[in-house]
Design brief:
By secondary structure, the protein is an alpha/beta fold. The protein folds into two domains: 13-168, no CATH class; 176-291, VSR Endonuclease (Endonuclease, Chain A). Helix content is 39%, strand content 16%. The chain has helices spanning 13-36, 44-50, 108-115, 121-131, 143-152, 159-168, 176-187, 228-242, 253-256, 259-275, 288-291; strands spanning 41-42, 66-70, 83-87, 97-100, 103-106, 194-202, 205-213, 218-222, 247-251. The strands form three sheets. Strands 6-7-8-9 form a four-stranded mixed sheet, with helices on both faces. β7 and β8 form a beta hairpin. α2 (44-50) runs antiparallel to α3. The relative contact order is 0.11. It comes from Bifidobacterium ramosum. This is DUF559 domain-containing protein. InterPro entries: Restrct_endonuc-II-like.
Length: 309
Amino acid sequence: MYEIWQEPHERQINRHEAWRTQQRTVDRCLDAQRRLGYEPVFALTTALGLFGVPAPPGIMLDDGPLHMCRGPNMPRRRVPLGLRQHQWRAVTSPGAVTRVFGIRCTTPAATFAHIARYAMFESLIMLADRLSCRDPLLRRATGRELAAFLQRHGGLAARDTAIRALHLSRDGTDSPAETRLRNAALQRGLPMPVVNHEVAVGFETSRFLDMAYPRFGVAMEFNGRHHAVQAERDSTRLNALGARNWRIFQAWGSTLADERALDEYCDDVKRGLEGAGASGFMRPRMGLWELGDRRLHLDVLSSRDTPNV
């Protein structure tokens, strides 16, 4: 279910990175099982590695050892060097454990809930986005599945933090950089965009935009690390969308690294929306934690039911 059976082409950057992460973690876990003499339940960042998910920055766990967990009533065993055991009561609940290449680990939803106590808030949003990404080979859960596990386990540490993070997460996000760009836009008062919005550009042909306000034909794109072939495809895609009167604002790694550049970028998007006829959509600046309040209506200009422009 979560196994990547064949090595993807190196041009498929995210897939190849996931395959390498998974293979490396599987090898380490199999070696650990041989040393332990029994099957543990791997958890936290080790479970992420088994799913092929690199841990986002801001997870406050030692990334050297492999992490395992046991329930409160399970016997305590001696753990060899290079392994760390955590007690977590939810591991014994139905649906909390799965297998990857035969290795036992916490499910994606259980892993998300467990890791919340060790994660910075934005890191948790990034992780939720990565687990529910658009690529079907790499998608490990939906936002609904992550939320359902939290709803079934009311007393978990950092449960409320995880629920707030899910309010800001969006299924179908392609990269951590896109998460950071979306978060920066929200913090500066822009409304929640539609993620990976599909636009028809010809007969039986469509293109996707990273983030869009479909009613107004305004979009945000992040340009990340690409091979030349991917860069050429992106250029062709953006040209086709521009020909259909989309106003596309492009951001780069340098944009995310500079608060002033982010301010200017979001001001440009704001002016683009106003130029397209939008009004009354800006909020005061807010921190991510405040924005995670589920009582806030963030997508005042966006609707998943909006027809493609």
